[in-house]
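Revision sheet: structure tokens.
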Amino acid sequence: MEIKVSANAKINLTLDIVGTNEKGYHLIDSVFQSVSLADKIKIKKAQVLNVLMPDSGVECQDNIVYLAAQRFFEKAKISPCVKIEIEKSIPMSAGLGGGSCDAAVTLLALNKMFSFPLKDDELHEIALSLGADVPFALKGGTMRATGIGEKLEAVSPMPECYFVLIKKGTKPSTGQMYARLDALENLRHPDTAGALEAIEKGDIKLLASKMDNVFAALWDLKPICDLIETTNPLTVTLSGSGPTAIAVYEKEADAQSALKILNAEKIEAYLCTPAKSSCIFE
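Predicted:
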């Protein structure tokens, strides 16, 4: 038996930091959105558990997907017996949740392959043990995330549009990014309630005007904005703690024009659209 599945990336339509909890973890208020940029995952039964990235041929025992599979088999009391191959399209360390989405989708695929031995709450428990944003990717779509990212509230699907995701630069660890943010004063906080209202109205222009991210204070997005200014993006904001910028377009032709400009400058960029889930079975 073999299962093939796509794991959609995640962006932040808004991202706000609203405090810390008793353990010192930052509390967020964010609108998560799945997008059509996806990794491909193939799972088939084998003698032992291994995870491979075909482009490298390297077995990844410290990969989050390996951990997800290991914890699935432990919880389901099944001997680990699959080979998992990951074909990456989502850039790594980009603020797009690639690893988290791959892990969540792997849990869903394994549960299907082995005739659903685990209930939804058990999958959620494993997902949360892997990372605060992994539970979102068990369903995906458009959701408001609070707490450390694990408290999820489904909202209406966002209006149709086109995203150009622009990865320019590298970043320190997420922990270091939070430390840098903590050192700043007078942060500009996004209007999360306004963004949710725009989603409910189905108004992409209003939503674009409300999209913002506190981590944008740590990045200079002006060079990107200047480069694609003639393509008329509705907004340019940031995903996660960076470095990926999100340019939002109402028309595909404008998004394609931006992609052409970025490609000419040899800047890593991807054209995608909103997705209604994180997981797509073939």
